[in-house]
Amino acid sequence: MSHASYELKAETRERVGKGSSRELRRNGLIPAVIYGDKQAPLSIALSTKEVTMKIHAGGFMTTVATIDVNGEKIRVLPKDYQLDPVRDFTMHVDFLRVSKDSQVTVAVPVHFENEEKSPGLKAGGVLNIVRHDVELNVSANDIPEFLTVDLSGLKVGDAIHISNIKLPKGATPVITDRDFTIATIVAPAGGVKEEAEGEAEA
């Protein structure tokens, strides 16, 4: 499962547009929109500090949250956010309404483990990561925090495909027409050492 759910307090925005957005930001608030689930979009304002902390904590885009809008609790999944390109503060967030039955599309990060158990990497090979995340169609309640790739036993020239990764129950890749590559182990520019260092201890 992904990061633990959290709750944010929000207030509705009566006025929308650049002028009112600038005014919100001056007051420490971020303009945001909740949309989806066959309901009209809802314009809200959130605490800049709280949202920025959640974004920097990691897992923001894969964690279902609850937004308390004037007492009404709405389950959402962040779908997009904009950062100021110069000052790096959050300018706007889009949230998608979700229910327990909602199917969502999310980009889930890929983590690699057991690099020390890969003969190819021990011999000087290089892990060439083709995809740092994978887009999945998955239940909103079962979004994984990350996907794990086990590098044990992999040699130079080996490739890891999506079919090699254990996906959560009910999750399917967005790309379905091919067994796409996640990473490969390639020879370094100078070639691979004849014998991996530390092989004797293994």
CATH topology of the largest domain: Ribosomal Protein L25, Chain P
Query: How widely separated are the two ends?
Result: 34 Å
SS summary, helix count:
3
Total domains: 2
Assigned CATH class of the largest domain: Mainly Beta
**Helical percentage:** 10-25%
| Sheet with most strands | 6 strands, mixed, barrel
Instruction: Estimate the global geometry from the Cα principal axes.
Output: elongated
Please give the CATH architecture of the largest domain.
Beta Barrel
CATH homology superfamily of the largest domain? Ribosomal Protein L25, Chain P
Order of helices and strands: EHEEHEEEEHEEEEEE
* Low-pLDDT residue spans: 195-202
- Strand arrangement within the widest β-sheet reads 1-3-2-6-5-4
Mean pLDDT: 87
**Radius of gyration, in angstroms, nearest whole number:** 22 Å
Number of strands: 13
Strand fraction = 35-45%
* Estimated structural class: mainly beta
Structure characterization notes:
The chain is mostly beta strands. It folds into two domains: 7-99, Ribosomal Protein L25, Chain P; 104-186, RNA Polymerase Alpha Subunit, Chain A, domain 2 (Beta Complex). The protein contains three helices and 13 strands, in the order E-H-E-E-H-E-E-E-E-H-E-E-E-E-E-E. The chain has helices spanning 18-26, 48-57, 119-122; strands at 7-12, 29-36, 39-47, 65-69, 72-83, 90-97, 103-113, 126-129, 133-139, 147-150, 159-161, 172-173, 181-186. The strands form three sheets. It has a six-stranded mixed barrel. A four-stranded mixed beta sheet has the order 10-7-9-12, with no helix packed on it. Strand 4 (65-69) and strand 5 form a beta hairpin.
